[in-house]
Design goal:
The chain is an all-alpha fold. The protein has helices spanning 22-40, 42-60, 69-101, 103-109, 114-127, 130-143, 154-175, 179-198, 206-214, 217-226, 234-263. It is 75% helix and 0% strand. 46% of the residues are buried. The model has no long low-confidence stretch (mean pLDDT 82).
């Protein structure tokens, strides 16, 4: 009997490895994205911080320093603008490029939950903005003669505003039909954060104020601005941070759904 006449041995396919749990997969994606950001995003973080400091210098010639709502809004808006530049603008471009170049196929083959990819990437981009936000807020407080004793509130503002803006940026990048449109959407979102976040809300027309209320980062800006008052309204600050967190949860859920849709 030759080898050709030997009976075929039935073999069963090997079972696939179990899918990774959400939190370990999220931590792995977060570390990978943060390591990548340290190499390629440091120049962009410098640009984002330099841009916000430049806006502070420009507004210093328009807004009087000291304890007034306009100065509070300018400093708070300039600080949160660093988050908008990185977490919204760059993340929209990143996911738009991944979708256009087929990079999502790589993530789709990994045994990781879709939510871990979106949340880990968004968390990495948001946490990457922390140094720039503190530098901008510190320089703004010095330029406008504002207290720095309550800058610890940034430890709540950055993750909550970052989650809202990163989720929105990821959703824009994943839902845009073309990479160029994702880049355009990210730029428009950052421009909205600039125009509606830095300028004092009381000086905007009423219809524009309604548009400002739809911008997730505006609640983080308001929470930070209120801490510069001699006697902050902590109930209002907590409410603004709560709204920012709720919007962040909704935007990250939308981004996760958009990831599943794009990966298919």
């Amino acid at each position: 009997m030759t080898l050709l006449d030997a009976p075929a041995v039935a073999t069963e396919p090997a079972p696939l490895a179990p899918a990774a749990r959400l939190l370990p997969a999220l931590a792995a994606v977060y570390r990978a994205q943060l390591a990548r950001a340290k190499v390629s995003r440091i120049p962009l973080l410098f640009v984002a911080t330099f841009q916000s400091v430049g806006i502070l210098v420009m507004m210093r010639g328009v807004v009087d320093p000291g304890d007034n709502p306009s100065a509070h809004a300018v400093v708070a808006g300039s600080a949160v603008l660093v988050v908008a530049f990185v977490a919204l603008n760059l993340l929209a471009q990143y996911f738009g490029r991944l979708r256009a170049t087929g990079g999502l196929d790589h993530y789709a083959t990994l045994p990781v939950p879709p939510a871990s990819v979106v949340l880990g990437t968004a968390a990495a981009y948001a946490s990457f903005t922390v140094p720039g936000v503190f530098v901008t807020a510190g320089i703004g407080s010095w330029m406008f003669d504002l207290p720095i004793a309550r800058m610890w509130i940034l430890l709540a503002v950055v993750p909550l505003a970052g989650a809202a803006l990163a989720g929105l940026g990821a959703a824009l990048g994943l839902l845009a039909p073309r990479q160029e449109l994702a880049t355009l959407a990210g730029q428009l979102g950052m421009s909205a954060a600039l125009l509606l976040g830095v300028l004092p809300a009381s000086r905007l027309p009423v219809p524009v104020q309604w548009l400002r209320d739809l911008l997730p980062s505006s609640y983080g800006v308001d929470a930070l601005a209120l801490t510069y008052a001699p006697h902050p309204d902590w109930a209002r600050i907590t409410l603004d941070l709560g709204v920012c967190g709720a919007v962040g949860l909704a935007s990250l859920s939308l981004a996760t759904w958009a990831y599943r849709r794009a990966a298919r």
